[in-house]
Amino acid sequence: MHIYLGSDHGGYQMKEGLKTWLSANSYEFTDLGCFSEESVDYPDYAKEVAEKILENPGSLGVLVCGTGLGMSMVANKVPGVRAAMCTNEFMAEMAREHNDAQIICFGGRVTPQDLAEKMLEKFLKNEFSGEERHKRRIEKFES
Ligand code: RB5
Question: What are phi and psi of 111, to 5 degrees?
């Protein structure tokens, strides 16, 4: 499983910390930027990560902006992409199990780093349940 990361300036520090966590836990990842705390536009990074997810089925994404809101709004406008803005571990787990989300979004200015790491771990270690009711619900908004 490959992981694509993106952030704007508001999420840059959290993304850097998540990369350290991913390396320490032997995950393979690609950082698609941004690469400093200079002000940038979050839609550019959300679109790029969303496109990579579609090009590489089975891959997962992490998007971080100041609140997580802008990143999730943009990623969810890309057809076929399901991005989940999470603020606790249960949400991160359910995002995979019930919603089959491919991208998790965090707010670098509102969420502690250690909580983001715990949420990321839940997101990466859980899988879509594949249960009929969840497939049906996803199909209702994918088509
Ligand atoms: C940037 O200042 C901020 O608006 C952005 O990081 C994000 O929070 C948007 O949703």
Answer: -125, 130
